[in-house]
Each structure stands twice: as structure tokens, then as C-alpha cells.
Amino acid sequence: GGDHTITYPILQAVAEKHGPVGLVHVDAHTDTGDRALGEKIYHGTPFRRCVEEGLLDCSRVVQIGIRGSSYDPDPYKYCRDQGFRVVPAEECWSKSLVPLMAEVRKQMGDKPVYISFDIDGLDPAYAPGTGTPEIAGLTPAQALEIIRGCKGLNIVGCDLVEVAPMYDVSGNTALLAANLLFEMLCVLPGVKTM
After folding, report:
1. Which contacts qualify for 8-16: CB closer than 8 Å, 24 or more apart?
2. What is the pTM of this model?
3. Average pLDDT estimate for 148-154
4. Can you tell me where the transmembrane regions are (predicted)?
5. CATH topology of domain 4-110+120-187
């Protein structure tokens, strides 16, 4: 759906009910900028705002697929300083993410977890319909491994953001996004699948 700004108010509501939550964040970007064009709230800042408000359990935040251009010589410093685990895309290339997700499940434990999936975490060869595409991203199979790897976690909410169908005349981005959302619904606690 909408841009990644929507995750900020969602996490405000989730944290009001559950306290600070863990986060499985799939994205090409960390979305921890401070401001853009003078604004503190935009699609590149939601997780910095969440940290500032204490909405995240920073020891249980993992960001997967991060890559692309940056305005900073050490673009992941803020995240690591907060205690986030940053998994750059190049650490995911040409391999299964099943082992990574076993580690993530241990890290998340049984406390509440939120999944936030930016479609630009995937390579634009698969999902060109987004506003900030970055080359050399994840594959749809890896996306499924991440989402299915969250099964058994105490998931209290999820989103899939940054889909812009007008940038993809094939419709593949929207189709992929719909299927990933379906997969997220399937890993919610209490959902029985075959």
C-alpha cells in the first residue's frame, strides 16, 4: 500500500497495547533518516521516530536486504548504535535465508513482533513498481523464506508498503505484493495452514 510513513502511527498504536515490539524489517533502506526537505516525518524516517518514542525493543530489530546509495559514509551507524541487526543485501545474495531466519526467531523470542515489508527490498527485476528501486535486491523466494521464517513468532501486526502500480505496466509488483501479504496472514499466530 502506501509509503513507509504509515508504519509510524501503526507502531504507535501497537506499542500502546503491547509495549515496545521487536521488528522484522525488509527494505532496501533503513528508513532511519532524521529529516528531508525540512520534514521530520516522511517515508525515510519512520524507524528513527519510533526509536525516539520508545516504540521498538531495539535489541529485537532486524533489517534485511539493506543496500543502495546513501548520503552518509557509514549509512548503518545509526541503526547499529541503537542495537539493530543490519543484514545488507550482499550478505543474502545467492543463498537461502532459512538459516538467517532461525537466528532471527531466537533473537525475537516469544515477545511481540511486527513485520514491516517494503517492496523495494526485492530486486526491481521482480518488483519495479516502487518509488525508490535499488538494484541487487532480494528474490521472491527469499521473501517467502523471510515471511515463512516468522511462523511461530508472536506477530502482533504487519504491513507491506511502497507499492506503486503505475510504475509497473506488467502488474507483477502488485501481484507479488498481494501474495506476500497473503503469506503474512498465513504466519499470524493461530492461523492453521496445510
Report:
1. 8/41, 8/45, 8/46, 8/49, 8/50, 10/114, 10/157, 10/159, 11/46, 11/50, 11/55, 11/56, 11/114, 12/53, 12/55, 14/55, 14/112, 14/114, 14/156, 14/157, 15/53, 15/54, 15/55, 15/56
2. 0.97
3. 98
4. none
5. Arginase; Chain A (3.40.800)
